[in-house]
Amino acid sequence: MVSWHLCEEVGRLIPDEIRIGDVVQTRKPHPCGSSEWTVTRIGADIKMRCSGCGRVVMLDRETFLKRRKKLISQGPPTDIGALNPTDKEMP
Ligand SMILES: [Zn+2]
């Protein structure tokens, strides 16, 4: 089940669904200047990698959704991954 919420800043609906490979823009840019992140792991926490400097951070789901401003591109659907997402990790 996918729920959606309206992002006021971009004025459109973005899914609350999180997929591995999602490229997202955060509200605040990283100190390196980039505000694009790629989701690399989904489990109890969301792991994402900065496109600018490659730094990886872990956020809980709620914090991730709060910081995410925009979904730039969505990762591929993962039917199996949705059941066991912690086993999936990008190289
Ligand atoms: Zn960075």
SSE blueprint:
Blueprint: E1 4-7, E2 12-15, E3 23-26, E4 36-42, E5 45-50, E6 56-60, H1 61-67, E7 68-73, H2 79-83
The structure holds zinc ion.
Can you describe what's shown?
The chain has 91 residues and is mostly beta strands. It has a domain at 20-76. It is built from two helices and seven strands; from the N terminus they run ββββββαβα. The protein has helices spanning 61-67, 79-83; strands at residues 4-7, 12-15, 23-26, 36-42, 45-50, 56-60, 68-73. The strands form two sheets. It has a five-stranded antiparallel sheet with strand order 6-5-4-3-7, with helices on one face. The longest helix is centred in the C-terminal third of the chain and has 7 residues, at 61-67. The radius of gyration is 13 Å and the shape is globular. The model has no long low-confidence stretch (mean pLDDT 84). The structure holds zinc ion. Zinc ion (ZN) is lined by residues 30, 32, 34, 50, 52-53, 55.
